Amino acid sequence: MRGISVPGVLAALLSSSAMTYAALTQVVDWGENPTNLDMAVYLPSKLAEKPALVLALHYCGGTGQAYYQMANYDQYADAQGFIVVYPTTTNDSNCWDVASEKSLTNNGGGDSTGLVNMVKYLIQKYNADPTKVYATGSSSGCMMTNVLLGVYPDVFAAGSCYSGVAAGCLAGSPGSSPQSADGRCASGQNVKTGDEWAAQVKAMYPSFNGSYPRMQTLHGTADHFVEYYNLAEQLKEWSALLSVEFSLNVTDTPQSGYTQMVYGDGTKLVGYSAADVGHTVPVHPDLDMAWFGL
After folding, report:
1. Which of 103, 112, 138, 139 is the catalytic position?
2. Residue 139 annotated to the active site
C-alpha cells in the first residue's frame, strides 16, 4: 500500500488551493467533497468533442501530482483528447479509504463519493462522455479502483490497476493505511469464494441490477507488502460479478516474465502475474489505454 516518499511534492501540493503544476491544474469548488479530497486535472490542448475521462489514483503516501509523473498518460490524452483526473487524499497517511462503511456504500459520503462527484463535475463542465469513464491506480489506488467499480458500477465502464486487493477486503478495518489497517487483508489472509466476494460487493449497492464494469488487474509474485495472494481474490471477485470463468494463460504477455490470465473471451476480465516483481508492478500506460479502448 505504500509507494515512494514524496514529502516535497506533497508539501507543494498542499500549499496551494488553485494553481497550475506544469500541465496539471488544481480544481476547487467542484461539488460535494465529504472527505476533503484535492482534485487536479490534466486537460489536453485539444479536447475531443465528448472526451473520455480517466481517474488515476495514487498509492499510499502519494499525491495526485506524484502519480501524474509516475503514470505518464500525457501522450495518450493528447492524442485522443481525453481528460485525466489526479485526485489526492491527505487522510490516513494519504491512503484512500477502502475500509469504512461510508466509502463502501453507494452515495455513503466517503472517499468514493467524493471521487465520483469529481467525475460528475467534469462530465458536466467539459461535456465528457458518461459511458467512457475509467479508473486506474497503484497499491492503495488499485484498492480504490476495485471499490469504485463495485460501489459505482453505473459510473465506471472499466478499471485497470496494479498491486491492490479485492473490493471489501478491508471492510470494517480501523483504517486503510499500513499503520491503521487490519493486516490480514494485505497479507492475503482474507480468502473467500467468488460468490462470497460478489455478495459483499452487491450489498454495497443493493438496488443495482445492471452489468458490472470490465476489470484488468496486475500483481507481482514477489510482492510481500500487499501479498500476491490478493491477485487471486480479486480475480475470484470479478469472475463472479462478471459471470466469466478462467479460460487460459498466455505467457510472456505483455512482456517477458508476465503471464496474462484470460477469463471468458478476455473482453471482461484479465489478470497479469508479474514474475519476481515486488510492490508495485510498474504502470503500463499502453496496456491501460488498450483495455479502456483509448
Report:
1. 139
2. yes
